[in-house]
Amino acid sequence: MTTTYSSNLAQTVKPSMRSDDARLVFWIVIVVTFASLIVLLCYALRFPHFPVADTEEWARYGEYVGGTIGPIAGFATIVILWRTLQIQRADARDTAHNFSEQLAATRKQLAATQIQGFEQSLFSWLSLHRDILNAVQLQPIERAMSNIRGLHALEHWYTATFDEDTVSTELRGWLLETEAPGEYDNSLIAASFTKLETLPEFAQAQAQEILLERWEDLYKGASFQLDAYFRTLFRLFKWIDSTSSSLLTPEQRWEYAALVRAQLSWIELAFLFFNGMTERGKAFVPYCQKYALFDNFDTSNDSVLSFLRARKSNPYGASAFSSTQARKNPALGMQPSATAPIV
Questions:
Q1: C-alpha torsion 100→103→107→108, nearest 10
Q2: For the segment 223-257, what is each residue's pLDDT rounded down to a tens digit?
Q3: So where does this one cross the membrane (predicted)?
Q4: What would the pLDDT profile of 273-326 be if each residue is shown by its tens digit?
Q5: How many CB atoms within 10 Å of residue 286?
Q6: How far apart are CA 241 and CA 291, in angstroms?
Q7: What is the spatial distance between Cα 283 and Cα 289, in angstroms, rounded to a whole number?
Q8: Residues 245, 246, 251, 252, CA torsion sign
Q9: pTM score > 0.70 for this model?
């Protein structure tokens, strides 16, 4: 709208300038002509009779005319030249301004095209991620439920692997077979504990080891399906994070990462959480923390995840679970005014 207004204003002003210049030249010609006539008239009135054939008189007459009319004509020439220079400068400024506007418009169009290309690639990544997830299915050994795919397959594996009663039974067996350190009585602990968080530290460490071993068993049994899933998500976040700052601002990178995060279901986040606690998945942890991948990931109703999240050996910091904390990270390079939490 501003460009249109400027263009209309230029179209209105330029004809006016040309009209004013024409009037200026017209009046200069009139003034010079009138002044010349006055000069000639004055000479004719003062010297009504001079020999037409007298060359010396003609020479004096020429000097008179040149000395009187010449300065007037010279001044008029200077005025016209000054005005011409003004017009040329104005035209040069207009040309430079138009060029700057065209250059800015071209750059804006190029940036929009690049953003459009980036978004197309992003949505292609998300589509690929969803296709990989939907292709996950229970294995032949679970043929009775072989029609279970995608999120339901992940949920089935998770529930079967981290059943609280099964985990507690395995831990109690370990306690009864292991000698307790110091003043602890393992048989008493095994008989009385109800929550993993209430166990002594040595027992909590063993509980964590049991849970991670169970995760490894789950992953090994389905690695041919899960490896592509984890790699695709990892590469997607790495691609967003490494995109040139000339294309994306830190705020835009955050928004695109948040868009990807919003596509992840609770069970997917649970799998990503476990994967990050292994040597195999530790490279994903920095992106989880930088972009608050587990923001709104409620673990309060899952005793296993609540226990692991509370462990000091948990590789995730507070920023992995809070957009507010993550956005304060200087590594993001975001402006202070942009630190409001965004889901």
A1: 60
A2: 889 999 999 999 999 999 998 888 888 899 999 99
A3: 24-46, 66-85
A4: 999 999 999 999 999 999 999 998 999 889 899 999 998 888 999 999 999 888
A5: 16
A6: 9
A7: 11
A8: negative
A9: no
